[in-house]
Amino acid sequence: MKRVLTLIAVLVALAAPAFAVQPDEVLADPALEARAREISKGLRCLVCRNESIDESNADLARDLRVLLRERLVAGDSDAAAVDYIVDRYGEYVLLKPTAGGANWLLWAAGPLMLILAGGIGLFYLRGRARASEPEAGLSADERERLKRILED
User: Fold this and answer.
1) In the chain, how long is the greatest CA-to-CA distance?
2) pLDDT higher than threshold 60 for residue 19
3) Residue 64 in 3-state DSSP?
4) CA separation, residue 72 to residues 42, 60, 102 (Å)
5) Tens digit of pLDDT for each residue in 94-106?
6) How many CB atoms lie within 10 A of CB 64?
7) Section 51-76 average pLDDT
8) Rounded to an integer, what is the distance from CA 82 to the centroid of its chain?
9) Cα 47 to chain center, whole Å?
10) What is the pLDDT of residues 107-149, one digit of tens each?
11) C-alpha separations of 98 from 48, 92, 136, 142 in Å
12) Neighbours of 53 (CB within 10 A)
């Protein structure tokens, strides 16, 4: 029974999210460390792509974590530290990019394309409905001619 419980405990520990922050990176001040962890969750690892620097084991992610902690120890606010990193590495480093400037086009592209596709679909369906409308009935001359053709 002890072996089973030990095995379950080990599996649960392995299944928990592993953070890549090394012990030598951790700040002595718990408040600063908590700020650094919170900020690093929103910064992208430029090597791993859609993984935060807090979760990445890449060397560049480590460098970014150290740089962030240096900025916080130097007295920067959260926004100032993030701005420093964005100025240095570009806006791509943010996991949630801002919705200002040229990014408005990217943020608006999805809804605009949906509206455009809906309009095109509606236009197509209305045109198709008009094309499938039944034609007016045959005139008397046409009925007489059709009757003669069918009798032959």
Assistant:
1) 104
2) no
3) helix
4) 15, 18, 29
5) 888 777 777 778 7
6) 24
7) 87
8) 20
9) 17
10) 788 999 999 999 999 999 988 877 766 667 778 898 899 899 9
11) 21, 10, 59, 69
12) 29
Q: Which two tokens stand for residue 146?
A: 């059709």
71 vs 115: CA distance, rounded Å: 44
Q: What is the distance between the alpha carbons of residues 21 and 112, in angstroms, rounded to a whole number?
A: 41
Residue found by looking up tokens 């299944």 in the block: 15
Helical spans, DSSP H, in the chain: 2-15, 30-40, 59-73, 78-89, 103-131, 140-151
Q: Which pTM value belongs to this model?
A: 0.57
pLDDT higher than 70, residue 20: no
Tokens of 85: 């990193």
Q: Which two tokens stand for residue 45?
A: 């690892």
Amino acid present at 26: V
Spatial contact of 71 and 40, defined as CB atoms under 8 Å apart: no
Instruction: For residue 78, give every residue at least 6 positions away whose Cβ sits within 8 Å of its Cβ, in sequence order, or none.
Output: 35, 38, 39
